[in-house]
Amino acid sequence: MILGSAAAFSAAGFCARLTAVDAWPTLFWRSLFGGLLIAGYIIWSQRGRVLTAFRSIGPTGCLIAGCATLGSICYINALRRTTVADVTLIYAAAPFLTAGIGWLRKGEPPSRSTLFASAVALVGVALMVCAAISSNHLAGNVLALIMTVVTAVMMVLIRRHRETPMLPASCLSAFAIAALMLPVARPLSPSAIEFVHLALFGAQFGLGLLLLTLGTRLISATRSALIGNLEIPLSPAWVWLAFNEVPPTATVIGGSLVVLAVAADVLLARTRL
């Protein structure tokens, strides 16, 4: 399931390029279709306890849903303003931001290997941002960085409040995005074929989130992170093969540093376990 979630999430850039629609209607329909898919699973799995499941998320779940909402809005707009490779590889630094926020919150410093890997990843992100300035992709990269920070905050909240059910919070986030986008989205503007593409985008979003949430309960977090990192090389590969979107050299170098830092930290964590 984790492998399937990584494959599904890696298709986000491909779906964004396939869908020649502005960011606002894309956000509306992606979130609506994805939210309906997740809601359908909740209705099937809870069997009459749907309201109880949503009530149980509490204030923490609402805060997590808010982080997911802001992150998704930044994510789609970042894909419209920079390359898929830039967005994906900047997001690869999320585990290190999560470790840093956890350190500040709990006062527990991460391991030396994580600190070193974080420094390497920071150099990689800096290289990509420098490349973005020269290629007029700075706005997209800043949005990707905001998305990454928000995701890191969300992960800290999830780890600290593991009793909070994630699927209802994710469903709430998806429908909140659709509601926020409705006044500006012009939802009936896409053509028939664009609706098909947007439905595919929503299914990709909902399926990836479902598989990730279910799969992480069955294997260790370390193994889940290692398998989930397959999204990083797959995302730019799909758009390179389908749309010939070749990332700049600085992005390739910086992204390679981020990927190597993530892989090294996860593998070293496994040896410590």
Based on Cα principal axes, name the global outline. globular
Query: Count of helices?
Result: 14
β-sheet strand percentage: under 5%
Secondary-structure content class: mainly alpha
- Quote the distance from N terminus to C terminus: 23 Å
Mean pLDDT: 80
Note the run of SSEs as H and E.
HHHHHHHHHHHHHH
Unreliable segments (pLDDT under 50, ≥5 consecutive)? none
Helix share bin? over 70%
Largest sheet entry = none
Give the total of domains.
1
What is Rg? 18 Å
- How many beta-strand elements? 0
Question: Short summary of the structure?
Answer:
The protein has 273 residues and is an all-alpha fold. The protein has 14 helices and no strands.
What is the element layout, followed by pairings?
Blueprint: H1 2-10, H2 12-18, H3 23-46, H4 50-55, H5 58-81, H6 84-91, H7 94-106, H8 112-134, H9 138-160, H10 166-185, H11 192-215, H12 221-228, H13 231-243, H14 249-272
Please, could you describe this protein's structure?
With about 270 residues, the chain is mainly α. It has one domain (about 1-270). Helix content is about 85%, strand content about 0%. It has helices spanning about 1-10, 10-20, 25-45, 50-55, 60-80, 85-90, 95-105, 110-135, 140-160, 165-185, 190-215, 220-230, 230-245, 250-270. The model has no long low-confidence stretch (mean pLDDT about 80).
